Amino acid sequence: MYLELNPDEHLYIQIYESIKNKIISGEISEGFKLPSIRALSGECLVSKNTVSNAYYQLEIEGYISAIEKVGFFVNKTDHLVQLPSQTDALPTTQISPIYNFSYSGVDSSSFPFSIWKRVFRETIDYDETLLKQGDPKGLYELRNSIANYLYNSRGIQTTADDIIISAGTEHLFYLLRRLFNSDTVYGFEDPGYAWGNEFFTYDIEHCSAIPLDDSGIRVDELVKSNVDICLVTPAHQFPTGIVMTTSRRYELLNWAKSGRYIIEDDYDGDFKFSGRPTPSLKSIDSNDSVIYMGSFSKCLTPALRISYMILPKDLMQIYNEAFSGFGCPCSVFIQSALSKFIKDGYFEKHINRMRQLYSKKHMKMLSLLKGIKGIKVQEPHSGTSFSVEVDTELNSNEFAKLALKHGVGITPVDRFSHNGVKRNMYLLGFTGMDTSDIETGLQILDDIISKKRRI
Amino acid sequence: MYLELNPDEHLYIQIYESIKNKIISGEISEGFKLPSIRALSGECLVSKNTVSNAYYQLEIEGYISAIEKVGFFVNKTDHLVQLPSQTDALPTTQISPIYNFSYSGVDSSSFPFSIWKRVFRETIDYDETLLKQGDPKGLYELRNSIANYLYNSRGIQTTADDIIISAGTEHLFYLLRRLFNSDTVYGFEDPGYAWGNEFFTYDIEHCSAIPLDDSGIRVDELVKSNVDICLVTPAHQFPTGIVMTTSRRYELLNWAKSGRYIIEDDYDGDFKFSGRPTPSLKSIDSNDSVIYMGSFSKCLTPALRISYMILPKDLMQIYNEAFSGFGCPCSVFIQSALSKFIKDGYFEKHINRMRQLYSKKHMKMLSLLKGIKGIKVQEPHSGTSFSVEVDTELNSNEFAKLALKHGVGITPVDRFSHNGVKRNMYLLGFTGMDTSDIETGLQILDDIISKKRRI
Questions:
Q1: Whole-number Å distance between alpha carbons of A112 and B145
Q2: Is the per-residue pLDDT at A88 higher than 60?
């Protein structure tokens, strides 16, 4: 058997590859007896160990069989997987804006890539638990870290046992729906993100749109409705940015007292840059009627795809009975790594850095927006994005398209509206942009509004 | 300001930590002016750079502010996150068997931990796409790799565009349910895993139990039913292990021709150790009525929590319209790493190794099981687990409990049965066990059956 070997590369791999190729190509076939280890090592002028390693590799992958005291024989191989190298086909791409005021961006230059490499290196190690599907409610250690974090950051007293980990708000909401019967009525803020995602509202006869005022969701309208569970975003209402006042929070909690539930989505509660601090609903809920939802998408990265909720005791009991067979959708790899990231203190550092950084960007955005004549900021105390009114005769889709033509991405607020927002409102996020892109992007918007730039 | 420094550790970190602690403890408070960089460097006998680095770290985390040409001042810090170190509370544990014939185990000693470390190290790098939520259908590259794999391993011709990635069979099934209207009737094999998981069958009036015979699901019974979509496990029926015969496959495909769908769950299709090779339903489906489901749980590890399905063209069109707002539950980190693992050839090697290894364990199990007088193997050609009948007067729960008392974990088949399996059947997996544990575990079962061991 002739094998061509290159002395500069691993010899056993070359022997393994050469014989494997001869088997795959059919040059040697089922039943063929390979040279003995001694014979091949003499022929190739390599050590017996080298040949032995190559034969071992071929054997464990199923290409050959060893018969003791007889020799090595080629197996039938049509059942073996052989993946040809792939051509890198690419999907058809969409135009993406150069200056993207996306409300879901994160600052990529601040993401601790090297720390994550280290965390994964230290997490992935021979460990049986890493090869199991894990707890349906999510990794216990991680739930424990989250409970600890919520106490310190949001004043919420909770334990690992009250927390369920999942993969995004939609998935949490899906679990919730399964806990209630099918004629339960869900209330959503209008405008609110639920109206922009068919997932929340597909069962439209069981959904109710509740209007807002400057203090947040209108509890007087909620009282008049037949809503059983109401989803709110009190920290910064999405998409208007309105901070729910403390008195409105108590009104809302009061509404829930008669067997109703509030879902508090605290999606950017970590980021409060101005105005008076307001407590989370969950932290002032004495009646155990608040379902609290949080996520690592804003404060770390949406790429982790980890979100969580705290369930009231009565609902957790139903969950424990009904969801025994439903696995947590998050990889144990990711959950372990995130748990370590928090435990080793990196998360604390990261979130404090991000608060500083985003606070500076927030100030920059606000001062620039105030300088644009045709733009009115709806809520200066908003969190990670601004909702603005634009003075233009174009409708919201036309204006957003025109902006995109000039490289600027903005989101019309009426995408999240059910009963129709009359005014010309847009959502402008800033967390994923650097300062100079914020400047240029807003300058372009200014030019479009003042008609210095046309189609 | 007195700082105690240890010359053997990073000096800037010590300065940063000392000042941070003074701020947190309240020793120095809001408005306190820190010594200048020059002054502190002289005082501590360290370079100005060292002090400057420490101040920079304190500044970006929000503990202090720099005012140009004036100095460094302590900020108000009650808004900063400070996570105390956690006590490692542990959840209450269940008794886990020493000899666990679990049907969902994988061989942990063969899992390539060091390759995964490397793959993560090489994947996680400054890359904007890693910080985004990603394609709702899953990472394009990974879908492309899966299409390539299915063609080579299972004879299925498909493309990335036809594939949706999700996090477990339940999640895939959930997506499917949303594509059909609410009066659709689902057929499940009886026994079958759906009957063991309330998730599949909670809407019981829209579920139908279809019995089996030795060739697989009974299509004559299916024809008599009002089922619209039927879930089957043709490679090795779960839990009986029966391989669906080729003629039964064509009968089933024929049933689907009039606008019905078949869900083919190929959960262990990668592992066929004996008997004639049978094509996947999807590969012989000329009518585009098969929804194919696969996963990396058996062939790699359930810890990844990655599964996927191929949708027929008509269903994919509905999906594209209905699920625009529903994010893929899998972390982009995991998807990128898995894609690289496949692309770099590690998956091919791994699966061939596992086939060899599991094939040996399969042979071992079969020969040992045949030697036990009170045990009858139902299907010798089964895949990664055996379904066996045990000669005992105990009922299945009693017998499983008794086995557990002696350290052996087995699963009663009637857990997956709807209309009741009369016989005393158990599911015995072997993929997660080493050979000596298989021997000991089966010896214990033998002793229990022959009453050498009692309670």
A1: 28
A2: no
